[in-house]
Amino acid sequence: MQASQIAGIAFSLVGVHLIQHFGRALSRGRSSHGWRRTDGYIVGRGAVGTLQRLEASATVPTYTYSVHGVEYTSDRYDIAGSETGSGVEEAFAEHAVGQRVTVWYDPADPGRAVLVPGMQSSTYQRMLTGVALLVVGVSFLVAGSLAVEREATRHVTTTISPRP
After folding, report:
1. β-strand 109-114 against 70-74: which pairing, if any?
2. Axis-axis angle for helices 3-31, 121-160 (nearest 10)
3. What CATH architecture is 36-116?
4. Which end of the chain is more exposed for a tag (fewer CB within 10 A), N or C?
5. pTM for this structure?
6. Burial of 26 (0-12, 13-18, 19+ CB in 10 A)
7. Secondary structure of the chain in the HEC alphabet?
8. Which of 116, 51, 124 is nearest to 88 (CA)?
């Protein structure tokens, strides 16, 4: 197996994973338009999630909300789990601890909640990244297979040709 084929498999697997993950997020984003609304309160801010460890300035609010007398806590901004970026920072730059926010929760699973329902452009961008990685991976696989085939053909031709 050639290095290009190994790279192709790796790119393809990552691409498929991203497509699957953010495809589910798009589906949940569509369904979140039917979620119920309740009041919540900001209880703090913190760097959570892998991306935020890379961006020290990015923080998301942690908020609590209550559904049928049960209190829940979340730090999910949108359905895809966006935790960084100007949209999050700008949206909550002026929110202080104790401030009321509108929380959208899944009636089938009240522990799943967001501050912004629906689909965000970042979800589409992430899914397109997965598609691009899949295309690159398949291209590497095809190129590697063609190189192996050419090498095999050249080897057979060299072996069959009579020597002077």
Report:
1. unpaired
2. 160
3. Beta Barrel (2.40)
4. C
5. 0.59
6. middle
7. CCHHHHHHHHHHHHHHHHHHHHHHHHHHHHHHHHCEEEEEEEEEEECCCHHHHHCCCCCEEEEEEEECCEEEEECCCECCCCCCCHHHHHHHCCCCCCCEEEEEEECCEEEEEECECCCCHHHHHHHHHHHHHHHHHHHHHHHHHHHHHHHHHHHHHHHHCCCC
8. 116
pLDDT in tens, 49-100: 444 433 434 467 889 999 999 999 998 887 766 554 455 566 666 667 889 9
Longest dimension (CA), the chain: 92
Burial environment of residue 84 by CB neighbours within 10 A (0 to 12, 13 to 18, 19 or more): buried
Return d(Cα 86, Cα 100) in angstroms, integer: 21
Tokens 């060299």, residue located: 158
Say how many C-beta atoms besides its own lie within 10 A of residue 23's C-beta: 13
1-14, pLDDT tens digit by residue? 788 888 999 999 99
- What is the domain partition of the chain in residue ranges? 1-33+120-164, 36-116
CA atoms within 13 A on the CB side of 108: 4
